Input
Amino acid sequence: MAAVRRALFPGSFDPMTMGHLDLIERATRLFDHVVVAILRNQDKRALFTLDERLAMIAESCGDLVTSGRVEVTAFDGLLVHFARRTGATAVVRGLRSTTDFEYERPMTLMNAHLAPTVDTVFLLGAERYAHVSSRLVKEVAQLGGDITGLVPEGVAARLRARLHGDQAG
Ligand code: PNS
Output
């Protein structure tokens, strides 16, 4: 039997956006198993706790999680060490722009230096989500803008609840 092709999709996911969800779905068409991996100890202050971010991703991925194609988890330390522990041979990252590319390039080269057998695979972000980032979504939501379609429904509800105290989330 052919070996299971396992990929990591790492990030901060504070919160997950539709751009992330699109990339996860596309990654499942390329790999047998996709591990969405939230970096645990970050310097920057997150709006959502790790547990909230785990829950939002699991909810949003729905059937992909229940069918076992996607797993959502957290990691500490080096990404390549986590890749080795989980048996992942690839890291999937999305690119929206050349700015993203410049941000990704040193990380990718460092990861390749540390673990030459773990490759990074870039997927070009869908054009309809090219303007969508966790940071901008939080800013728009904070300032009362409409975030419909930019994040999964459950994430939008939690954002409204966190930022404006709505009961919906
Ligand atoms: O969503 P983000 O914040 O752009 O994701 C960045 C992430 C989590 C992929 C990156 O910070 C990471 O892999 N951190 C783990 C620490 C690590 O491995 N550092 C050395 C190689 S860059």
Summary: Residues 10-12, 39, 78-79, 107, 110-111 surround 4'-phosphopantetheine (CB under 6 Å).
